[in-house]
Amino acid sequence: MEKLVVGSREFSSRLLVGTGKYKDFQETQDAIVASGAEVVTVAIRRTNIGQNKGEPNLLDFLNPEEFIILPNTAGCYSVDDAVRTCNLARELLDGHNLVKLEVLGDEKTLFPNMTQTLEAAKILVEDNFEVMVYCTDDPILCKELDDIGCVSIMPLAAPIGSGLGITNPYNIEIILENSNKPVIVDAGVGTASDATIAMELGCDGVLMNTAIAEAKNPILMASAMKKAIESGREAFLAGRMKKRLYASKSSPEDGVIR
User: Which of 3, 21, 23, 100 is catalytic?
Assistant: First the structure.
């Protein structure tokens, strides 16, 4: 299957995973390995990747030579905080410039503040960051982020951690139609069928965390998500049959004995 190309990088897996909400770093490692994901997103404000000396370091469990560490700005509620966090990540990861931008606007829903997201995206793109951007499923705003130069548009399918699935597939379809960059669903997936639906719509990938980490068996769910992403992508590429109101015979009429 063709690779996912994001900015200057390419990946074999179209499943991107987070590192939060697991019981410990060992479970994090086991689930991520089972998922087959190559891109692992890390909340710099919440997870130690070297900035807190003497504390357990996630990078002791996820080798940056084996995984692409994608720093994110989760927990940032202003342009300044988000930009500062991205610069800290670049310093901690020896010049790594691929980041996931989040500028949140509401603590309850964790919906993004799109005005500040657009402003932060402009600053980061001008500073040579490759910006993957978490955003609402507004097709107009997604097109603006695309035009700014973000390398991936990441609309939410439902509120973060809700597990509600793809609540507005029609907006996602419009975003896909108008986007020149990879569209990766970010937030809202609850189970494997949700991930498959996202891929069958034509999304280039799915990023998830809670759906795996809060499953009763995270490692098994991670394996299920790997298969769901692959099957959904294959179904999209294959092209589904047309929907019909009435039955359609599977066998030809010619030669039927009457």
Answer: 100
